[in-house]
Amino acid sequence: MRENKNKGSRSIDGGILVYPRKEAPGKWMVMWRTPEGRRYRSFETLTSANFFASDLQQERRHNGTRPVHSILTAAESKYLEELRAATKGAKLSDLLAAWKDYQAKQTGLTIGEVAHRFVDMRSKEGVARFLQTNYALYLRRFIDMYGSDRPANSITPDEVRGWVDRLLKADYSPKTVNHHLRTLSMVFNRAIAEGWCSKNPCLAVASIKTERDEVSVISLADARKLFEANRGHRVSLYMALEAFGGLRFSSALRIAPGDINVADKSIVLPAAKHKTGRRHVLEGLPENLWEWIRNVDVISDPLWRKNPWRMCVPVYNREKKAAFERAGLKLQPNVLRHSFCSYHVAQHQDAAKTAVLMQHANQAMIYRHYKGVATRADAAGYFAITPSSFGPSSFAGRRRGRPRKSREGSDPAGAPPSGCVSAEPA
To answer: Bridge-partner residues for 86, per DSSP?
Structure first.
């Protein structure tokens, strides 16, 4: 900047001149040249005139000498001066970046981007694969209705209610719809915490009221039919771990011989093999379970002899369904684990003991769903079901024709092969 001492004016590279207004003492003018002619702007103080001239110089360096749209009025220049003072002379580029970040938070990322980030983050946090699958499915159903480009903050409670109504009209059960709603609310809460959006429209939406159904419990007579019809089949061992050990089917399938201590009558569920991701040791399990475990040496199923302790979830689901059909029964979801809990609390009248074996956090679920479902007399007969309580096995040990190639893995650690993903019960 060059100063003309005689006239009190200052010239800046780029054809910009700052000088005092003769007709208004104490006020200053800024003049700059453009291809269309000279341009002028008046300012109350020399400081504001110099700030404007400096910004104009930077702008002309980038854009040339063309007239631009961003020339400020005197009032706007005053605000700019105050902004610079408040931000201690921060660069306009930094202020613009901060403003864009603020606007992004106020507008919210698109719902499609929020959903993608949420699922990706939960995956990196080690959430079970079936939960990741459920998250993606539930969010896809919401995005398909309103579009992936909708800003997350523009979603209203009424739109969420419309989505809930649509799910109900599509014959999803109230319980399933509530799972959808809770997942969406969880996504918005996480988005708020991460700064992706600023509000959760799900908080204003009430859950669907559901009637509490009684748990499915297999009768004593049907339990005897089931295990008698399938003795000798490998599926009987895993069903016994559910029915007489109370294990979730996903944990039962991951059991390896090294996890079972027959001498001490205990089963270890390593953290990697349990739904909660925590290690459990099960002791005090019913005596008949250990007879079924010792019975593995006489299982005549050729698939078991080929790959013992190896079965993935899809195969187990298929074989368990066939096992129930073989006994003339209909398979109900989680019926074997529910039966264990109901009969066990009926036999021992000790909800705390049953809760420990069920790996529940407390006794509340036992009292809410299982206590009073079965009688002590039936429980005594239920836990007396053993391989030796039946006659000789009717399992032929061979299948007619050429056997179908097994799709099961052969992981020596006993875990299901990758790609076999389970939808574990809640």
So the answer is: none
Considering only CA atoms, which of 45, 57, 50 is closest in space to residue 18? 50
What are the mean pLDDT values of the chain's consecutive 10-residue runs (426 residues total)?
57 84 82 80 87 83 56 69 82 80 72 93 86 92 92 91 94 90 95 88 90 78 92 89 89 86 86 74 90 83 83 89 94 90 90 86 80 86 89 49 43 37 34
Contact by Cβ (8 Å): 148, 186: no
Residues 395 and 327: beta-carbon distance below 8 Å: no
254-261's contacts with Cβ under 8 Å and 24+ in sequence apart are 254/414, 254/415, 254/416, 255/309, 255/414, 256/309, 256/413, 256/414, 256/415, 257/309, 257/414, 258/414, 259/414, 260/293
Per-domain boundaries in the chain: 2-90, 111-204, 220-389
Q: How far apart are the C-alpha atoms of 329 and 315, rounded to whole Å?
A: 19
CA distance 322 to 331: 9
Integer-rounded Cα radius of gyration of the chain? 36
| Confidence at residue 190, expressed as pLDDT on a 0 to 100 scale | 93
Q: What is the pLDDT of residue 86?
A: 87
Element containing residue 157 per DSSP (H, E)? helix 157-169
Length of the chain as a residue count: 426
Q: How far apart are CA 162 and CA 145, in angstroms?
A: 9
Name the nearest CA neighbour of 221 among 378, 364, 337, 396: 378
CATH 1.10.10.10 describes domain 111-204:
no
Question: Using an 8 Å Cβ cutoff, are 345 and 366 in contact?
Answer: yes
For residue 14, count other CB atoms closer than 10 A to its CB: 16
Q: Identify the pLDDT of residue 64.
A: 60
CATH of region 220-389: 1.10.443.10
Helices 174-194 and 129-146, packing angle to 10 deg: 90
Q: What is the pTM of this model?
A: 0.52
